[in-house]
Amino acid sequence: MSVRHLYVHLPFCAHRCGYCDFVTATGRGDLHGAYVDALLRELGEEHDGTPVETIFLGGGTPTYTALPELLRLLRALPPASELTVEANPETVTPELARELRGAGVNRVSLGAQTFQPHLLEVLERRATPLDVECAFGHLRDAGFDNLSLDLIYGIPGQTPEQLAADLAHAIVLEPEHISAYELEAKPGTRFTVAHGAELERQAEQMEDYFERVVETLTVAGYRWYETANFCRDGKFAEHNLGYWLGRDYLGIGMGAVSTLGNERRRNTPKLARYLQGRYDREVELLDDETRARERVMLGLRLDEPLPLRGLRTALDPAGLARAEELGLAVEEGETLALTRQGRFLGGAVTAEILA
Ligand SMILES: C[S@@+](CC[C@H](N)C(=O)[O-])C[C@H]1O[C@@H](n2cnc3c(N)ncnc32)[C@H](O)[C@@H]1O
Ligand code: SF4
């Protein structure tokens, strides 16, 4: 099957950070080779080897995977114009940076989250602020000219001054791309139990934090092109842009999701099953209406107006009129966009506009 975007899930991590609910497995160095075998088997079944536009190796911690196995995987992937690997700073050595570059990786997304040592501890992160700086240096030395940095704000106990310091620190490193996510506390996790009261106390500050993030990064020359994503010199996250534009993508690996035509499917999140080639796929059939609604929800996160052709049935004309009256959305010709104010309110405005 030919797709334009390929996601590959590498689940292994050195340890589990308290706030994370992604599909991960701790350690398991003994299984990295078998896992890559399983990935290559699934890739062979699902893709004909023709070039794709983007590939994203996400995790987990892809760069925690035993290096020979990671390189074996990279060399077996189809050609792609953008090949991104997610990395945790403490895993980036000069050797790893050189090997990734040599294997055709041309973009690295580095999970910094924060530069405040005590907040890194709250998140149970392993990397120190110095690790992030060193990782950046190693990647630049290896020739990477497209680096992205992930930040999280709304960490329990984080003050506005600490957020400002994180943003300043990120800007000084001059990444081409920055993702800044509001911390999502998953109900029932030990993190949420431990920090619930503080998270509740902080909740009403989050709109203000979001505005500070956007203000600071745009003043520093970054384009706020998606709700939580910022870039310089047109260096968008092309892979993610594929999702936001509602394109099909193939996801391989345990827990990986694919959207192919009117089908969304998710592989088993169980490592043992996946290694046996038993994908136990959960399949959801997407009707045109659902795809149109998703297209509106995702499309309105972008700063480019959304073409409305084929999407009218997903809109509530009265809700749209209200959003326009309040200065939150603008319909122009056959396109729709949120205003700056509308983008700050984000999902709430989209919910109003949707039928
Ligand atoms: C799943 S992680 C994988 C990358 C890498 N292992 C890491 O931890 O940096 C991808 C990104 O998702 C974001 N993320 C993960 N859990 C989150 C949460 N609960 N709330 C907000 N952002 C989160 C982080 O910014 C992280 O860099
Ligand atoms: S390293 Fe990343 S993927 Fe692994 S547990 Fe921590 S946040 Fe989750």
Largest sheet: 9 strands, mixed
Number of helices: 14
Q: What is the β-strand count?
A: 17
Structural category is alpha/beta
Give the termini separation: 34 Å
Indicate the proportion of strand residues.
15-25%
What are the distinct ligands in this entry?
A: S-adenosylmethionine, iron/sulfur cluster
Which segments are poorly predicted (pLDDT under 50) over 5 or more consecutive residues?
Answer: none
Q: Write down the overall mean pLDDT.
A: 96
The rounded Rg comes to 21 Å
Portion in helices:
25-40%
The largest sheet has its strands arranged as: 9-10-8-7-6-5-4-1-11
Shape: globular
Provide a descriptive summary of the structure in words:
This protein is α/β, with parallel strands linked by helices. The protein contains 14 helices and 17 strands. Strands 9-10-8-7-6-5-4-1-11 form a 9-stranded mixed sheet, with helices on both faces. Strands 12-13-14 form a 3-stranded antiparallel sheet, with no helix packed on it. Strands 15-17-16 form a 3-stranded antiparallel sheet. Helix 6 (160-173) runs parallel beside helix 8. The longest helix has 15 residues, at 32-46. The radius of gyration is 21 Å and the shape is globular. The mean pLDDT is 96. The structure holds S-adenosylmethionine (SAM) and iron/sulfur cluster. The site of S-adenosylmethionine has 14 residues, from strand 6 and strand 7.
